[in-house]
Automatic annotation (TrEMBL):
One of its GO terms (molecular function) is hydrolase activity, acting on carbon-nitrogen (but not peptide) bonds. The keyword Signal applies. The lineage of its organism: Bacteria, Pseudomonadati, Bacteroidota, Sphingobacteriia, Sphingobacteriales. This is Polysaccharide deacetylase. GO terms for biological process: carbohydrate metabolic process. Residues 1-27 form the signal peptide. It comes from Mucilaginibacter gossypiicola. CDD domains: CE4_NodB_like_5s_6s. Residues 44-82, 175-250 form the NodB homology domain. Keywords: Signal.
């Protein structure tokens, strides 16, 4: 049996010589040498289309374009706005009247900020959600005194009767109203990923633990009940915050966060950064870009070209509004042209959901492929040590064969496929799909 001493969590390259009848070769690379390719299907890079908030025009305008082009995408949805959801926005804690009364004598400070910010949207008055959002953002950016003042002001208005009674959700929530779980089930069956974007789209850096967990866990619970476990893999905390405290909770609940995904083999460049992919000692780069109404189409296309000029880059595109609805709304006609450009690079770019790219990278990093000779054939055992209920994608294997092999029959279990060989500077090889932790893969000449 052949194996390797290379890092066990990375692709295994089989360097020992397979020497037996039918496989002896003078090629530079020995027959049987196998690797799990960096990207699915041996492509150069990956692209994921992601949408935040689930505003109606994403489904009315953008989704039909992607359907026509057969391009998958990930939608981070606000679950509390969907009819049939079990969980909705609420404040977990003391009666808000007590908190309002206390605010008359005790100013907002570090000790009471999270409780007051969590309760702010549920004081029983219109317009208080905006103060919650603003205070959470200011606190996250280190402007605590300004965050405290925002809350002191809104609580004073509540005490003084300056606000109209009622409840008004934020714009993101209101613009997501209209979709149903039946709609999402129908689109999920076509390969689209629907992932959590919380229950109400709160400013999570301003939430205390019980309210933060409510938004994270109960959104996941509704998605699990309505769409199944596949769609509870990914999430995006609202507004793209990378707050350390929020991430420490969210990363325990969701395996893949677009906000932040700390891995020793992954370099992350967020959409606010001006940095572009360059040299790195990491195996992968996740490069997030968010087009706004001021982003020229040539710049958007340049992101794709830059991804093609590297071999380790995952371009994660972030979209919000479409055709006048939502934050930084882009024309669907522009997206149509842009998506056609991305699709034209399909021979080199793997276009996949956020969850599937994450799954593949982890399967590769935790995977190994071990080859052995078997009566003139090559046998490959491919495996990884991840939870098979979450990590179930086939991986792409690249195996070098004898120069005399022009085609290969690849068999795993009951599945068999004939594949033509290809040549590079290292020798003759075959690319094929294999399911980790299942039957041995057999490669046979012809």
């Amino acid at each position: 049996m052949l194996t390797t001493n290379r890092k066990p969590i990375k692709t295994l390259l089989l360097t020992a010589l397979i020497s037996f009848n039918g496989l002896q070769s003078n090629a530079q690379t020995k027959p049987g040498t196998t690797e799990i390719t960096k990207w699915q299907y041996g492509k150069t890079g990956a692209v994921s289309l992601t949408y935040d908030d689930g505003s109606m025009n994403q489904f009315r305008k953008a989704l039909p374009v992607m359907e026509r082009l057969k391009m998958p995408a990930t939608f981070f949805i606000i679950t509390g706005s969907i009819p049939g959801s079990k969980y909705h926005g609420k404040f977990i804690g003391r009666p808000v009247k007590e908190i309002i009364k206390e605010s008359a004598t005790v100013p907002t400070n570090d000790q009471n900020f999270f409780e007051r910010c969590s309760a702010a949207g549920y004081l029983g008055y219109m317009g208080t959600i905006a103060s919650h959002t603003q205070a959470g953002s200011l606190y996250d950016s280190g402007k605590k005194d300004k965050a405290f003042k925002v809350l002191d002001d809104i609580y004073a208005k509540a005490r003084n009767g300056e606000l109209k009674p009622g409840y008004e959700p934020n714009d993101e929530f209101k613009q997501s109203v209209g979709s149903t779980w039946d709609d999402f089930r129908k689109d999920a069956a076509k390969g689209y990923e629907f992932a959590s974007h919380s229950i109400t789209h709160p400013s999570m850096p301003g939430l205390d633990e019980p309210n933060l967990l409510w938004e994270l866990e109960k959104s996941k619970a509704d998605i699990l009940a309505q769409l199944g476990p596949k769609h509870t893999f990914s999430a995006e905390c609202p507004y793209g915050f990378e707050n350390d405290r929020v991430m420490s909770y969210a990363l325990k609940i969701y395996p893949a966060l677009r906000n932040r995904m700390p891995e020793p083999w992954l370099k992350e460049i967020d959409r606010a950064s001006k940095q572009t992919p360059g040299s790195t000692d990491k195996d992968y780069i996740q490069w997030q870009r968010g087009a706004t109404t001021k982003t020229p189409l040539p710049v958007m296309k340049l992101w794709v070209d830059t991804t093609l000029n590297h071999t380790n880059t995952w371009l994660v595109l972030v979209f919000h509004g479409i055709d006048g609805m939502g934050y930084e709304a882009l024309p669907s006609t522009l997206l149509d042209e842009y998506f056609q450009y991305i699709k034209s690079k399909n021979d080199k770019l793997w276009i996949a959901t956020f969850g599937d790219v994450t799954r593949y990278m982890r399967e590769r990093e935790h995977g190994k492929a071990v080859a052995s000779a078997a009566g003139g054939n090559i046998q490959i055992k491919v495996s990884h040590d991840l939870d098979g209920t979450m990590y179930y994608l086939p991986v792409t294997l690249k195996t070098y064969v004898s120069t005399g092999w022009t085609s290969v029959t690849v068999t795993q279990g009951k599945k068999s496929k004939k594949v033509k060989t290809t040549k590079d500077e290292k020798g003759t090889y075959v690319l094929y799909q294999a399911q980790p932790n299942e039957a041995i893969v057999t490669l046979k000449k012809g």
